[in-house]
Design goal:
The protein has 317 residues and is mainly alpha-helical. 74% of the residues lie in helices and 0% in strands. The protein contains ten helices and no strands. Helix 5 packs antiparallel against helix 10 and helix 9 runs antiparallel to helix 10. The two termini are 22 Å apart.
C-alpha cells in the first residue's frame, strides 16, 4: 500500500512541476530559461545524492568511451519533453498536456520493447499489449477529440480567468508536439536505463542526464542571447515555489529508481502514470500554482479510466 501511494504521489508531481515551471516562464519570459533553471536545480540535487552514494566517476569515464553516441541523448530528450510541456500547458491545459504525451510514451515504449532498441530486452507485442494500446488510443480520443472545449471557471487571485487557449490550428499543432514529445520521453527512459546499467548506478545515470540537459539548455540560451532576467507579471513579488520544479523532477527520478528496484519497472510506470493523470485533473480543476482553473467533465474522467486500463495491459500484459 505504501509503495502504491509513493508511486502515485510521484506521478502527481509531474503536472505540478509543469505548472510551477510555467509560472517560472512567466517571470523569465522564456521557456528555455525556465527549463534551464529547472534542470540546473535538478542536476544540483542529484549531484548531491550521487556524491552521498560515494559513486566513483573515474572507472565510468573509460566505460562510457566504448558506448554508442546515443547513450548521451537522454538529457537532450529530457530538454525536449520539459520545454515542450511548458509550450503545451497554456494551449491545452493540464489534462491534455499529460494525456497526449502518455499515448506517445506507450506507443513508442511498445515499439522499443518489441524491437529491443537501445540495447534493451526484446518483449514481444502479444495480444494483451495490443489490446492495451487500443484502449489507450480510445482514451485519448475520448479525452481530446470528444471532450468539448474546457470552460474556464471565474478568475481568482492572480489568475487571468482564461483556460486552455489558442485556435484550432494551434491546438492541433500542440497536440502533435505532445505526441512527439511523449515518444521522445519513452526513448529517454530506455536510454537512461541502459546508461544506469553501464554505470552501475541509476542515480549517477539520472545525474548525467540532468547535467547534459543543463549544458544543452545553457548553449541554447547563449545562442539565442536570451536575457537572464526576472519580472513580476502580477505586479507582486515572485512566489518562492516557482524554483521548485527541478526539485520535483529530481525527486521523480530518484523515486522511480527506488520503486523499480522494489516492484519492477512495469508497475512503477503504471503507478506514476495514474498519479500524473490524477494530478493533471486536479491542477486543471483547482488552478493550482497560477494555472487558470477549468471545469472537469465526466467524459474526461471516463476517458482517463479507459487509458489507465489500457496502460495496465500494456505494462503488465
Amino acid at each position: 500500500m505504501l509503495t502504491a501511494l509513493i508511486g502515485i504521489a510521484l506521478g502527481m508531481g509531474l503536472p505540478v512541476q509543469t505548472s510551477i515551471n510555467a509560472r517560472l516562464r512567466r517571470s523569465t519570459g522564456s521557456p528555455f530559461v525556465a527549463s534551464l533553471a529547472s534542470f540546473t536545480v535538478g542536476a544540483a540535487c542529484l549531484g548531491v545524492v550521487t556524491l552521498a552514494s560515494r559513486f566513483s566517476p573515474g572507472p565510468a569515464v573509460g566505460v562510457l568511451s566504448d558506448q554508442p553516441a546515443w547513450i548521451w541523448a537522454g538529457g537532450i530528450l529530457g530538454v525536449v519533453f520539459l520545454t515542450g510541456n511548458l509550450l503545451l500547458l497554456p494551449v491545452l491545459g493540464a489534462v491534455q498536456t499529460v494525456v497526449i504525451p502518455v499515448f506517445g510514451q506507450i506507443a513508442m515504449g511498445l515499439l522499443i520493447d518489441a524491437n529491443g532498441w537501445f540495447d534493451g530486452r526484446v518483449v514481444p507485442l502479444g495480444v494483451p499489449r495490443s489490446v492495451g494500446a487500443l484502449l489507450v488510443a480510445a482514451g485519448v480520443v475520448g479525452a481530446v477529440v470528444l471532450t468539448p472545449r474546457a470552460s474556464p471557471l471565474p478568475a481568482r487571485g492572480g489568475d487571468d480567468g482564461r483556460g486552455p487557449r489558442g485556435g484550432p490550428a494551434a491546438t492541433w499543432s500542440a497536440r502533435g508536439l505532445g505526441l512527439v514529445s511523449g515518444m521522445l520521453s519513452a526513448c529517454q527512459t530506455a536510454i537512461n536505463a541502459h546508461l544506469g546499467q553501464v554505470l552501475g548506478s541509476p542515480v549517477a545515470a539520472a545525474f548525467t542526464s540532468f547535467a547534459v540537459g543543463s549544458l544543452v539548455l545553457a548553449v541554447i540560451v547563449a545562442v539565442l542571447r536570451t536575457p537572464l532576467r526576472l519580472s513580476r507579471p502580477e505586479g507582486a513579488a515572485n512566489p518562492w515555489w516557482m524554483w521548485m520544479g527541478g526539485l520535483l523532477g529530481g525527486a521523480f527520478v530518484l523515486g522511480n529508481v527506488y520503486l523499480a528496484g522494489r516492484v519492477g519497472t512495469g508497475l512503477t510506470v503504471l503507478l506514476t502514470l495514474t498519479g500524473s493523470i490524477i494530478g493533471g485533473l486536479l491542477v486543471d480543476r483547482f488552478g493550482w500554482f497560477g494555472t487558470a482553473p477549468t471545469r472537469t467533465r465526466p467524459i474526461q474522467v471516463a476517458a482517463v479510466l479507459v487509458m489507465l486500463a489500457g496502460a495496465a495491459l500494456t505494462r503488465l500484459g
